[in-house]
Amino acid sequence: MNYADTLARQSLIPLAPTALGELDFFSRRIAQSFVQLYEAGGQGNIDSTLLDMETLEQDVP
């Protein structure tokens, strides 16, 4: 039994183990993207204020 099977059995929402594997993959990709954005902002390649969620939320009409 693998980790996805264990989580599927413990979940209150019935999910197939493959769905949990896909969610894990998606979560890792999102985390990797945030790290890349942070690094790009730190190098001055992009304006770091563009990474500020509060600023982004205020700019939405």
Distance between the termini: 49 Å
Q: Total number of helical segments?
A: 3
Mean pLDDT: 73
Low-confidence stretches: none
Helical residue percent band:
55-70%
Give helix and strand order, one letter per element, not per position.
HHH
Describe the secondary-structure layout:
Blueprint: H1 3-10, H2 17-42, H3 53-59
Question: Would you mind describing this structure in some detail?
Answer:
The structure is a single chain. By secondary structure, the chain is mainly α. It has a domain at 21-61. 67% of the residues lie in helices and 0% in strands. The chain contains three helices and no strands. It has helices at residues 3-10, 17-42, 53-59. α1 (3-10) crosses α2. It is elongated, with a radius of gyration of 17 Å. It starts with a helix and ends with a helix. 0% of the residues are buried.
List keywords for this structure.
61 residues; mainly alpha; 3 helices; elongated
Could you give a short description of this structure?
The protein contains 3 helices and no strands.
